[in-house]
Amino acid sequence: MLKKSLLALAVSSIGVMSLPALADTYEIDTKGAHASINFAVKHLGYSWLTGRFDNFSGEFTYDPAKPEASTINVTIDTTSVNSNHAERDKHLRSPDFLNVEKFPKATFVSKQIKVDGDDKDEFDIIGDLTLNGVTKSITIEVDKVGEGKDPWGGYRAGFEGETEINMKDFNIKMDLGPASQTVKLELHVEGIKK
């Protein structure tokens, strides 16, 4: 009886040890303004017009030992577009651009993480961006900034990412000329472990 019990314990222990570690879940810290979604588009090919989305939310899972198992999802309030110019922002909200009356939200949901070689702090996030009612797969190049305890007893992890999208791919009707067909997105994401 004792041998059977020890054998059962050993087998169950092996089963537990072979289970993959679960990634931690983080809430993106938008309340503390430790995250941002910024954009830049060339203005007539002469300079850059920059802006951001003031309101968004989301969460991600992350395991530093296995970043390829990570996930992220973000919801953006497109009505919160802010280019520091009220009249231009009104135009950006119109059907010429973001069409926020019809599509007040944009989303990004990851589908796959690809680690770049041996460096687990650099990876590509491949996922679906839904913007202006259109869903397309995009790739975001990501660098880990850091992780660790914060002064308030929590634990944080931070990343930065970049990607570029073609406006026509997302049914944005306004044509700003040949030098202004794409938009650069720059992302800064700091999460607090749940």
Helix content: 10-25%
Order of helices and strands: HEEEEEEHEEEEE
Mean pLDDT: 90
Shape: globular
Structural class based on helices, strands and sheet pairing: mainly beta
How many strands in all? Answer: 11
Q: Strand sequence of the main sheet, in spatial order?
A: 1-4-5-7-8-9-10-11
Domain Lipid/polyisoprenoid-binding YceI-like: 25-192
Keywords: Signal
Signal peptide: 1-23
Pfam family, one: YceI
Can you offer a commentary on this structure?
This is YceI family protein. Pfam families: YceI. Residues 25-192 form the Lipid/polyisoprenoid-binding YceI-like domain. Keywords: Signal. Residues 1-23 form the signal peptide. Strands 1-4-5-7-8-9-10-11 form an eight-stranded antiparallel beta barrel. By secondary structure, the chain is mainly beta. The protein contains two helices and eleven strands. Residues 2-20 have low confidence and may be disordered. It has helices at 2-18, 86-92, and strands at 24-28, 36-43, 47-53, 56-62, 71-77, 81-82, 105-115, 122-131, 134-149, 155-166, 182-193. The N and C termini lie far apart (43 Å). The chain is 12% helix and 50% strand. The protein is globular, with a radius of gyration of 21 Å.
